[in-house]
């Protein structure tokens, strides 16, 4: 284990915010992870776990040990003619894993193509896109208990998945480090093309035979047309969750905005946060080095040299204006550090 001091985190977060960590280490094994946690305990400082840095906003220097998870590996645990169960290291890049599965003709992940981040972060957020969520193909995960330093297995029920939620964001927040995630994928694909612009994009691509590769290519094309590449413009993808509101409020909004999009859920109507932000006038907003993306109002951006506090302030202003205009409180997907 190599502990570095006073390291810039600019290269380790997709917003490209230049804040420092008092200590930094990258771990490639469970033993190194245990040693890192022991070091933080000995130094009496927090240990902050970092994956791909695609879901954080750094607002200050971190008086902590930043532990980057580089646990790698893809291993088939079970396989039959219908399905395959695969364990994937938490440090694997999410999109690389999706492409690996598609190459093997394992179905279930294709709608989740090009989502930034690592495999270990995927169940924490219950990441989802275009009608599919992690919980749909999740089998189990292994996580290290930060107190006992023992590995524990979590089932889908124990993870308590919700919309961009899991038990690791609430009841068990900060108590475990996800080390690997196991997925159950199908060899007999069911194609999900009804959400978003997938059907239209497949038609534009002149796809004659449906496949998981075609769906993945369509999703990648859609995402690239809407979302800025974090290697070119600092961002963390979708900054806010899509809120679910009650039917009465939705009907009230519809009186003034007949075109308001809404997706019925058991608990109400889900309204796209990007639409709300755009109606509040924020799309394309720019102030100095930060702003709201010109093509997708859900994405806050750092054009270069922006500070995390500036982005946090912008997010707060957006929340206030949407609340004032629609009576809806937007909640961030991004974690503030």
Number of helices: 9
Count structural domains. Answer: 3
What is the CATH class name of the largest domain? Alpha Beta
- Average per-residue pLDDT, rounded, comes to 92
Strand order of the largest sheet: 6-7-12-10-11
- Low-confidence runs of at least 5 consecutive residues: none
Strand content: 25-35%
- Counted beta strands: 20
Q: What is the helix/strand order?
A: EEHEEEEEHHEEEEHEHHEEHEEHEEEHE
Q: What CATH architecture of the largest domain would you give?
A: 2-Layer Sandwich
**How many strands, which pairing sense, and closed or not: the largest β-sheet?**
5 strands, antiparallel
Within the CATH hierarchy, at the fold level, what is the topology of the largest domain? Uridine Diphospho-n-acetylenolpyruvylglucosamine Reductase, domain 3
